[in-house]
């Protein structure tokens, strides 16, 4: 079986379904090619060593990567973002039409929606089925993030989504909540399959050493690693640190990473004279595993938003795979995973009192109990959510649609 992976983001860009996915499919005995753009995410600037041209063919570990031109941009400008998305869709359609041969199935990573439009057209002209992997619900996410506010435009995006979904051979979603939401749009439930995301297992398990170290003041360390943006609810986390400090709870909250909300959080912590919250700089994915391995507990947290109830943040899988007990500050499907695996405790999102109570609950366990809880999570990850499990499910679906 020859599979074409059509995705706007691919290595060396950070992505869930990139080179590791392609390599794993090939190891299952399939021929894999990739159709993508020139790397520019997340900064919106083309990576060093690349230059946008009409076409570029790369061979990485024996996998052919077709690169199509696009307008590079990932800033807050809606116009520039639209140009980025549409230029990619148009160029990949023509490059795919000309450069790809003997494809059996097209896999399309969504978002953006325009990638699936390109897959739809390619599938039509090459007479092959396409499968859509939905990682973001459009137009809901566009509205929630403020990227698009015009109700008429949002309605048009919704109709285009429905048009694509109804013509896809299969739709992959990352959670039960996503499946229910897609079904509510009139899509047959038989067409929708749930495949949980996996994490970068090799990077976490074979990590590079880092000069970054967790605090060694005798307290337990709970680590939040990743983007420190508005959606992560940093004000509630800082307030939680204040509650822990006032109650003499010997736990440090460590925030590892960068983002638009970081400076305000640092200022807030300084004003509260907090001695138990630490802000560490962003490190590469290859170094994250070493820092998480030093932690006593891991934190996953988002603000309280209806969309987040059906979302499973990517750090959830990484936290499970690390074998550390987890405090899950996200409701819905993400909390269900933690409860089902007995890998930690859950709390209300964006609620500092609830979050503090959850941290205290883990801190009061014995070290052996925390280790057992972490092992529960690791075992659950490798039995239910791992790359190997996910690829086998994808392979079955690809075979079913051709």
Q: Which blocks of ≥5 consecutive residues have pLDDT under 50?
A: none
CATH architecture of the largest domain: 3-Layer(aba) Sandwich
- How many structural domains? 2
Total DSSP helices: 15
* CATH fold call of the largest domain: Rossmann fold
Supply database-style keywords.
Rossmann fold, 2 domains
Report what the structure shows.
- By secondary structure, the chain is of the alpha/beta class.
- Helices cover 44% and strands 17% of the residues.
- It has helices spanning 19-27, 78-99, 113-126, 140-145, 151-167, 176-183, 201-205, 234-246, 262-271, 285-294, 314-322, 333-341, 352-363, 367-385, 387-401, and strands at residues 2-6, 31-37, 56-60, 63-68, 105-110, 130-134, 170-173, 192-194, 220-225, 251-256, 277-280, 297-301, 326-329, 344-346.
- The strands form two sheets. The chain has an eight-stranded mixed β-sheet with strand order 3-4-2-1-5-6-7-8, with helices on both faces.
- Helix 8 (234-246) packs parallel to helix 9 (262-271), helix 8 crosses helix 13 and helix 14 packs parallel to helix 15 (387-401).
- 44% of the residues are buried.
Task: Lay out the secondary structure.
Blueprint: E1 2-6, H1 19-27, E2 31-37, E3 56-60, E4 63-68, H2 78-99, E5 105-110, H3 113-126, E6 130-134, H4 140-145, H5 151-167, E7 170-173, H6 176-183, E8 192-194, H7 201-205, E9 220-225, H8 234-246, E10 251-256, H9 262-271, E11 277-280, H10 285-294, E12 297-301, H11 314-322, E13 326-329, H12 333-341, E14 344-346, H13 352-363, H14 367-385, H15 387-401
Parallel strand pairs: 1-2, 1-5, 2-4, 5-6, 6-7, 7-8, 9-10, 9-12, 10-11, 12-13, 13-14
Antiparallel strand pairs: 3-4
Helix pairs in contact: 2-3, 3-5, 8-9, 8-13, 11-14, 14-15
